[in-house]
Design a protein that fits this description.
heterodimer; A: mainly beta; four-stranded antiparallel β-sheet; 0% helix; B: mainly beta; five-stranded mixed β-sheet
Chain lengths: 116, 111
């Protein structure tokens, strides 16, 4: 069964550094998402992306965050200047279309970001 | 989106059916009920969804009451690998609304 894959599985960075988290969505999917989960807390929506632009974003997704689909297969999340509170698991997801009756979100296994 | 309410935790004996309840008393006519689960340190995994008819797939069954105010996810023969947090989410289809995960039910399958 096709999977969403994320790299790296664990990223350690120093406060103030830029990080790029990478995702390869399922190949025929058109909608892409980033979620995050701070340790012990809920899974939180960050952003959705379709047709090379952001569809929706939450209040968490401020100017420090950006997303990009640089080629036909990768979907990236960039954090420009990391803060300690950015430490979390970051999950990428994709869906074939916006009609969730036929296409639920499929999630990757996440990148654990640790900011020191 | 309709608010959903789930018990914080449940136990189930291995091999027995696990019945996970969810209340969604404010659900509207076009809101589907989705179930996901999250096994420790992994991404949320889609299980099943439905509107008003009961649904079954290879993982689970979903029973939705006639008034649609509550539903039950049934894992017919729970295994240790089913130990996870289970999330019930009510969401209209074909909209820009995103999945918002609550705190879910932490299911522990006991040997």
């Amino acid at each position: 069964e096709p999977e969403v894959t994320q790299t790296p599985s664990h990223q350690v960075t120093q406060m103030g550094q830029e990080v790029i988290l990478r995702c390869v969505p399922i190949s025929n999917h058109l909608y892409f998402y980033w979620y995050r989960q701070i340790l012990g807390q809920k899974v939180e929506f960050l952003v959705s992306f379709y047709n090379n632009e952001i569809s929706e974003k939450s209040e968490i997704f401020d100017d420090q965050f950006s997303v990009e689909r640089p080629d036909g297969s990768n979907f990236t999340l960039k954090i420009r200047s990391t803060k300690l509170e950015d430490s979390a698991m970051y999950f990428c997801a994709s869906s074939a279309n916006r009609n969730r009756q036929s296409s639920p979100l499929h999630f990757g296994n996440g990148t654990r970001l640790t900011v020191t | 989106d309709a608010k959903t309410t789930q018990p914080p935790s449940m136990d189930c004996a291995e091999g027995r059916a696990a019945n996970l309840p969810c209340n969604h008393s404010t659900i509207s006519g076009n809101e589907y009920v989705y179930w996901y689960r999250q096994i420790h340190s992994q991404g949320p995994q889609y299980i099943i969804h439905g509107l008003k008819n009961n649904e079954t797939n290879e993982m689970a069954s979903l029973i939705i009451t006639e008034d649609r105010k509550s539903s039950t996810l049934i894992l017919p023969h729970a295994t240790l690998r089913d130990t996870a947090v289970y999330y019930c989410i009510a969401l209209p289809p074909n909209t820009g609304n995103q999945f918002y995960f609550g705190t879910g039910t932490s299911l522990t399958v006991i040997p």
